[in-house]
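Entry 14. Ran structure prediction on the chain below.
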Amino acid sequence: MIPRSFEYLRPSTLQEAVQMLDKYEESKVLAGGQSLIALMKLRLVSPKYVVDITRIPGLSYVKEEDGKLLIGALTTHDMVENSPIIRQKCPVLSEAASRIGDQQIRNRGTIAGTLCHADPSADVPTAFLALGGEVVAVGPNGERVIPASDFFIDFFTTALNPNEIVREVRVPVLPPKTGSAYIKHARREGDFAIVAVAAIITLDDKGVCKSASIALGSVGPTPLKAVEVEKALIGKELTDDVIVAASELADRGISPPSDIHGSAEYRAEMAKVFTKRALRLALSRIGG
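Output, C-alpha cells:
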C-alpha cells in the first residue's frame, strides 16, 4: 500500500527537531525507518508530518564513560552487533542486535528506533530491560533520563512525550565473573520472537550467584522481568538443578498473547524452556 500524504521535515540540529515536534501535532520521527515506513504503508499510522533526523550530526557513536556504554540514538543495529567495545563489555546487547531481521534491516535500523517502537517481540528491548539501561530524552524543557523499567508502558507505547526525542542510550558495563545470553524462539531466523529471553548472571568469588537479571520478550504488552526466577537464583550455587527449578518460575507474572504463532499456554511453556537454555548458556560463558 501507499502511505497517506504527509509533509516531510528535515532538521539540521536536534534542537530544531524538538521544536518541530513541539510545533506540529501528529508528527513522527524518522530515523532508520524500518518500523515507521512499514506502519505508514499499512496505514496503521498516518502522521501529518515526518521529521527526518538522519542528517543530524553527532548521533551515531559508541563510547565508554563512568562504567557505562553510551550509544548514540542513530547507531545502527549492525554497529551495535559488531562494535568491539560492546562485544567485550556488554555482549548480550550485541547478541540481541545480531538476531534482528536480516543484514539490510540491521544496516538501516537504529537502536533508539527499536526502543521507541516498543514492540514487545523485538530483540533489543528485551536485552535493554535485562541490562537495566536508560535513555536520554531531549524535549522543549531540556533533557531527562528514563530508566528501562519506566520506559516501556504498553504495546508500542513508551514514556516519551510527543515532543521528545531520544538522544542517547546507556547500558552498564558488565562486571567481572558475569555471563550473559540472548536467545529467542522464532519460526525462522530473523523473525520476531515467539518467546525471547535475555539472561545476565554474576557470581561471587565462591561461585555463588551474586546477581541475576532475566528479561522475557513476547510474553506481555512490554518486555517483562522474570522476578521470581531472579529470586530463585541469587545466593545459590548455580547447579543444573537450581537452574531447572528457577526456570520453572518463568511463567509467573507474564500475560502472553495468543496468535497465529502460538497460544498463550504455548508461550508460557516456552518461557520456561528458553529461560533454562539462556541461563545454561550464560553460566557457560562466565570467565570464558
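Residues 60 and 74 are 5 Å apart (CA to CA). Will compare against last week's run tomorrow.
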